[in-house]
Amino acid sequence: MLRAARGGVRLSPGPGLVLRPSPRPGPGRPPPPRRLLQQAPPPVVPPAVGRWLLACSGAVAGAVVLGGVTRLTESGLSMVDWHLVKEMKPPRTQQEWEAEFQKYQQFPEFKILNHDMTLTEFKFIWYMEYSHRMWGRVVGLAYILPAAYFWRKGWLSRPMKGCVLALCGLVCFQGLLGWYMVKSGLEEKPDSYDIPRVSQYRLAAHLGSALVLYSASLWTGLSLLLPQHKLPETHQLIRLRQYAHGTTALIFLTALSGAFVAGLDAGLVYNSFPKMGERWIPDDLLAFTPVLKNIFENPTTVQFDHRILGITSITAVTALYLFSRKIPLPHRARMAVTSLLAVACMQVGLGISTLLLYVPTPLAATHQSGSLALLSTALWLMSELRRVPK
Ligand code: HEM
């Protein structure tokens, strides 16, 4: 996680250096030792930087939701090439649309799945993918342009500069990863009887890197804006903080495993809960060889793992909540831990409903957004509990 503790992120002292009133140096008097020089508190990073980072995390959340809807409406493979600038202009004339449609017709998704698709239907999936890609560009600019402005203004401390560079690098990487993912769905696979879809590994990498970008921006923004509590460093508080970190990591892992469920359409293999079909542990759990392959490629195992991780997450959140009740906490930290429990219950409820109702698009998209809400609440709690630097 990028470090940017509030009050810890300060601009370099520069002109803020002042001298204590000292006896005038004279011929017999040595100049005051350097450690008597006292520094005026250096200015903190302006709150505008924190607000910008929160807005960026909001923009990334929008891209994640839009990406989920694009995938759920099976629109993600409609644009079959990638140009950073040229593709920003959509087809205008009938001729341009037909040329675009013809390009799509050369690829497996049209040949195997959509061979009876009309131009009007194609326009819908094309615009879905186009809006996701355009939103991605907006997100990129939302990071890069203000970053350059704040840098020039000298509003970024040294650690913040590193932080901002990493975030800008990550946003560019995210775009490249998106195209790398789409490419895997455009390849002809003559030996495969499977429907054309992107690689679940690349989907998980694309979602995972979006979640890292989102979390890092939100965490840094919150660290800059939220006033810190001076909590007494008791043994219990240290343990609570460790639990909160562990639970956040678990939620992140659960969300990542959700990408494998989505990528393999594994939400459609067993649509019952709590059992999978008639059994607690389905027969085909280890059907693939070697055994390890099941974890990422067998839809049954992928769904099973996601259920286990989801249930472990809600159990961890409940335990965290119960443990927090024993410790005196400031009002905001108490609110964060209670909200975490509420959002976790909602997220698990949404996951189960998505499964039981055979993955309807609105519910599946809400479940995906719920994972962002859950991760955000966990990061908020971590931010409330963070250690004040001495
Ligand atoms: C802490 C709890 C959970 C988190 C953070 C979480 C997160 C996610 C995420 C991020 C996705 C990927 C969505 C996408 O890319 O479109 C997903 C998919 C899915 N999750 Fe969960 N999930 C949780 C619990 C559950 C539970 C308990 C169930 C059901 C028992 C469940 C069922 C599903 C299903 C069926 C999908 C596939 C939806 C699709 O194909 O789009 N989830 N989950």
UniProtKB/TrEMBL annotation:
Underlying gene: COX15
Cofactor entry: heme b
A GO CC term attached to the entry: nucleoplasm
InterPro entries: COX15/CtaA_fam, HemeA_Synthase_type2, Peptidase_S1_PA
Compartment list: Membrane
Record's keyword terms, sorted: Heme biosynthesis, Iron, Membrane, Metal-binding, Oxidoreductase, Transmembrane, Transmembrane helix
Top-rank lineage group of the source organism: Eukaryota
GO molecular function, one term: oxidoreductase activity, acting on the CH-CH group of donors
Compositional bias of kind Pro residues: 22-41
TM annotation in the entry: 52-72, 134-151, 163-182, 202-226, 247-270, 306-323, 335-359
Catalytic reactions of this protein: Fe(II)-heme o + 2 A + H2O = Fe(II)-heme a + 2 AH2
Membrane topology label: Multi-pass membrane protein
Protein name listed in UniProt: Cytochrome c oxidase assembly homolog COX15
Region span, Disordered: 1-41
Gene Ontology BP annotations: cytochrome complex assembly; heme A biosynthetic process
Ranges annotated as biased composition (Low complexity): 10-21
Pathway: Porphyrin-containing compound metabolism; heme A biosynthesis; heme A from heme O: step 1/1
